[in-house]
Amino acid sequence: MTDDAPAHRILVIDDEPNIRDLVRAALQFHGFDVEAAEDGETGLAAARRTRPDLVLLDVLLPDISGFEVCRKLREDGDDVPVIYLTARDTPADTVTGLTLGGDDYVTKPFSVEALIARIRALLRRARRDPAGAGAAVRDHSGQLRYADLVLDDRQWSVERAGVPVELSPTEFRLLAYLVHNAGQVVTRSQLLENVWGWDYAGQSQIVETYVSYLRRKLDPLGPPLIRTRRGVGYVLQSPDGA
Known about the structure:
The chain contains 8 helices and 13 strands. It has helices spanning 17-29, 40-50, 66-75, 91-99, 112-128, 169-180, 188-196, 205-218; strands at 9-13, 33-37, 54-58, 82-86, 104-107, 137-138, 144-146, 149-152, 157-160, 163-165, 186-187, 226-229, 233-236. InterPro entries: CheY-like_superfamily (IPR011006), OmpR/PhoB-type_DNA-bd (IPR001867), Sig_transdc_resp-reg_C-effctor (IPR016032), Sig_transdc_resp-reg_receiver (IPR001789), WalR-like (IPR039420), WH-like_DNA-bd_sf (IPR036388).
């Protein structure tokens, strides 16, 4: 247990009582203050009322989806860290959740200790960067913006400097993942897992190929945004380094 853990309030939104109770008990054991909700609307109301430090959010809820809960929180201007708890782990679902404003994905069944570690890591990151400096932002219309890029995950459309950019579904998922993690180096393994899925594990050449596709389409419209970190991976960074 860390000294500052009791100050952190966690909201758990999950309709499965066994998972909800297990997670609640584990979090309380580790010193967190926990509130739980069994559906999306109740959870959304709780988030607005209690202003938690982090939300654990099931995707498949009985009323509105976890994706919709996260979308509404972001439209409210609430940047609370969100970790999805879900059995849906396809690359498309992962990128959809992240582009809607989620911060991490934990697939059921999961290790409670691993979940606690990810919660603490995300809380540390939020504390280091409380204003979200250098990160992408979601505007009032729900579009994701970074530098001169605008992504609309509902229409699967992209613009750079006001010019529409035609992307394939895989190119869009790759760019969306980079935008969501703007300013942070992402490894090839992370990209393979979250954009292509485990079936492509070890085939890192496909990452380089699709990054080159994105650069060919984006770079003619402005300064390069995708930087290579040799031996590690890639980072999406605005030209001024913000």
